[in-house]
Amino acid sequence: MNKEIATGTHDFKKIIETNSLYVDKTLFIKDLIDDTSDVVCFPRPRRFGKTLNMSMLNYYFNINYKDNTLFKGLKIMEQDKKYLMEMNKYPVVSLSLKDAKFDNYKGFIDNYKEIMKSLYSKYNYLLKSDKLDETDKEDFLKIIRKQENVLLPNALAKLVEYLYKHYELQVIVLLDEYDAPILNAYLEGFYDKMITFMKQLFVTTFKDNNNLRKGVITGISRISKENLFSDANNIEVYNMTDSRYSTYFGFTEAEVDMLLQEYNLINTKKGVEKWYDGYLFNKTIIYNPWSILKYLKNEDHILQSYWVKTGNVDLLKKLVFRMNDNSTILNDFHKLLETGKIEHVVLDTFMDLKNLIAKKNTIWTLFMLSGYLTPTKLVDNPNDVTLRIPNKEVRENLENMANSWLTDIKRDEIDFAEILRVGNIEKFKNSFESIVRSGFSYYDVPKNEKGENFYHGFVMGLLYDSTNRVFDITSNRESGDGRYDLVLKPINNSSNNAYIIELKSAYELGLDKTIEKSFKQIEELDYLESVKEYNVTEIAIAYIGKKIKIETRKIGKEELKN
After folding, report:
1. Which pTM does this prediction carry?
2. Burial call 217-230: b when 16+ CB within 10 Å, e when fewer
3. 316-332 as b/e: b if 16+ CB within 10 A
4. How far is Cα 440 from Cα 334, in angstroms, rounded to an integer?
5. In a 10 Å sphere around its CB, with 0-12 CB exposed, 13-18 middle and 19+ buried, how is residue 346 labelled?
6. Average pLDDT, integer, range 189-218
7. Using an 8 Å Cβ cutoff, are 527 and 511 in contact?
8. In this predicted model, what pLDDT tens digit does every residue of 346-401 receive, in sequence order?
9. Phi-psi region at 245: left, alpha or beta (left = phi > 0; alpha = psi -120 to 50)
């Protein structure tokens, strides 16, 4: 019988004790022990196993889990005695900043107080330790009681100091998703304050700290040129392009083969490759682990997008639209979707966010670090890299991203629903054509039915506003003897104008004849039946890629009654 799959569970102990599926990554422990660096950092995409690996490290090294049997039968237990002697030997502090994201600095500080209160509470026994003096205990209580902001940036380092005093052993610090509040602060406008805070946290905790045995840090990116890492210059960063540790985040091909054999799905290997394979971490082919597990867990074993549903793309979208030359980025995005790759990228793995709006290479590097792109081959020269879309799952998400971005272009400038409410057809036509010309340059509208689906979704996005709805919008409904594309009926008598919108590809007939065909279809299939109580405007939109033609025809409700 196949093991249960605990997707969404990042607690190593829970997975092992419930006998759930676990892909053995415990040799990560061996490599960390062999690594002479004081502090190591692993930038990897979301859902690639960072948090589970950190949990595994906690249970292996933490002195509070002494003599646990969680690792029985796993690869680390087959290693030399020197590695086994490190098991449950050290005090460990484990901290995640994944959810420390707020729209202002005060919100972050208030949240970080709660994070530190919760963390310190796990070590309440230190208040009874005769190794800590009264000043130590007073400061400990100030953190528990959330009394002083001035102590906060140093709170992690102070906890390490207290544990060192109590146990007379160096401490291991596990800091997960360190960059989440930094990236968020950049978007929300308090980046400088956040960098100042995090810089103090990093320097006091990780730089020349004799109380520290080892620090392990994870995130999506490496924030460096703002001195976050350069002041703590003993941190060794292992990027996706490095050979060391390349097999510990994500599933290797051998691991995927083993899983497919175990779940009697090896005959689906080609489809699995197409959907979830394609990442290159140095020389190692890597599969998306989240998607593989979700695919195995799905009772019908459907090959579909799983990973893309686990997060949003707000960061990438906002960064792109803040660029000084975002039209170039958008054109490059068009080429990426058309060809599947983008060439001559200078990897900026040190993420100089402060100067981001002037550096398009940072954007493409962030796409790579976030898991949306991957190098086509081993990166020998970071100043000239070709990045490609790794698999079908990511391509599907990027296409949806393009559609969403186009819709958002108009939201900042034009209220299309209001334009139609007042019946300003000329403004609708001109505005629509302008957006298509300026925005669709980076999206190659397909010639097949996907092209019509794209335009259809785009028009829906232009017109629909859940917070201020003007029209009831119906799509692909039966009316008369056929199915219309879109019908807009006014809500609560907000207008006396209704609209029928017909979208058609003009690749075969040309723009003019396609327009004629659209109006003829509306008439012959009696689409007007559903809106005969209104003044109706028929809008025919014909397209060849981003080249479009829009024609309209008005029919009064009195005419419809006759």
Report:
1. 0.75
2. bbbbbbbbebebbe
3. beebbeebeebeebbeb
4. 8
5. middle
6. 93
7. no
8. 887 676 666 665 566 778 888 898 899 999 998 888 889 999 999 999 988 887 77
9. left
